[in-house]
Design brief:
CATH class: Alpha Beta
Strand order of the largest sheet: 3-2-1-4-5-6-9
Order of helices and strands: EHEEEHEHEHEEHEEHEHHH
Largest sheet: 7 strands, parallel
Protein name: SDR family oxidoreductase
Structural class: alpha/beta
Strand content: 5-15%
Number of helices: 9
Radius of gyration: 20 Å
Low-confidence stretches: 288-304
Helix content: 40-55%
Distance between the termini: 56 Å
Number of strands: 11
CATH topology: Rossmann fold
Mean pLDDT: 87
GO molecular function: protein-containing complex binding
Organism: Leptospira langatensis
Length: 304
């Protein structure tokens, strides 16, 4: 049985990779920054080590006795996580280079990395350049590898649903650019399958090819809002982005990435089977239930 180390195991993708590995019967070690973060994995791993990819010494013996490393580590695209002002280059490139060096130094036989689907013009964004520079480092390292390149994760599109619930359907540009986003569960399946694959790169997308307007309209429909998308001209958004640059480079890079991908066709081979509308409805329902539970708790507190 192969022994797998999952780096970035407590993130949106990482925890689903751990579940898929467990389902397939692999022995799993996870690397996390703290014991408290491991709770989200619900004991689906066999061993753990505490360490930070930005601090090579802290990773210690995490790679000892490991056959393959799966790195799901990278800078979050969730605005709620932007208290950390580290740039995409520092985290996506620098942190993962530390992981790759440790894997090479301990004789790991295979390295799996999750990047982003290539599309013409997408390299303008620092987020993509940081992934591409690390992908190049893997190719030049001599290790056996597979780079999984999905389109946008469903979770990245939750901002469309958040805006829709407020009655806003905001689209950058003309809304005609196409994409087939993919559920993280489908990506996790492809990542685990890559352990037994001879492919150096695997491109994957979801089942539905949608324009940015159609994604916004879908979010508005799920939110029960009878509205039409509002389009923000690219040049206005670009001005806003550069005004933010001196204050938080991470947010600047995030908005630069958004400005780029909203105007490009990013369509990958239709690998995934889970659909965006079902995901939006699931998230909308769970958020409504959470809101109702909080209201009930407040009511009980008042009655006492």
């Amino acid at each position: 049985m192969k022994r797998i180390l999952v780096v970035g195991a407590t993130g949106n993708l990482g925890r689903l990779v751990v579940s898929e590995l467990k389902r397939k019967g692999y022995w799993i070690r996870v690397l996390a920054r703290s014991v408290s973060k491991l709770q989200i994995l619900e004991d689906e791993f066999d061993d753990y080590k505490i360490g930070d990819i930005l601090d090579p010494k802290s990773m210690g013996s995490a790679f000892s006795g490991i056959d393959a490393v799966i790195s799901c580590a990278g800078a979050s695209l969730d605005l709620k996580d932007f208290k950390n002002k580290g740039t995409f280059e520092e985290i996506n490139l620098g942190g993962n280079l530390n992981v790759l060096r440790a894997a090479l130094n301990t004789g790991v036989s295979k390295f799996i990395y999750t990047s982003f689907l290539r599309a013409k013009g997408i390299q303008k964004a620092e987020y993509i350049r940081s992934h591409d520079r690390f992908s190049e480092a893997i190719r030049n390292s001599g290790i056996d590898y597979t780079i999984v390149r999905p389109t946008a994760f469903f979770s990245i599109l939750l901002e469309f649903l958040e805006f829709a619930k407020k009655g806003m359907g905001i689209v950058i540009g003309n809304g005609k650019a196409k994409i087939n986003p993919i559920h993280e569960k489908d990506v996790a399946k492809a990542v685990v399958e890559a352990l037994e694959s001879n492919e150096e790169e695997i491109n994957i997308g979801g089942p539905d090819i949608l324009t940015r307007d159609q994604i916004t309209e879908l979010a508005l429909k799920v939110a029960g809002r009878n509205k039409k998308p509002i389009h923000i001209p690219i040049f206005l958004n670009r001005i806003l982005i550069y005004l933010l640059r001196p204050f938080n480079r991470r947010i600047f890079q995030f908005m630069q990435f958004g400005n780029t991908v909203h105007t490009l066709d990013i369509v990958g081979p239709q690998y995934g089977v889970l659909r965006l509308e079902d995901y939006f409805r699931e998230k909308s329902g769970s958020q409504l239930l959470h809101s109702e539970n909080r209201s009930l708790e407040k009511g009980k507190g008042f009655s006492r």
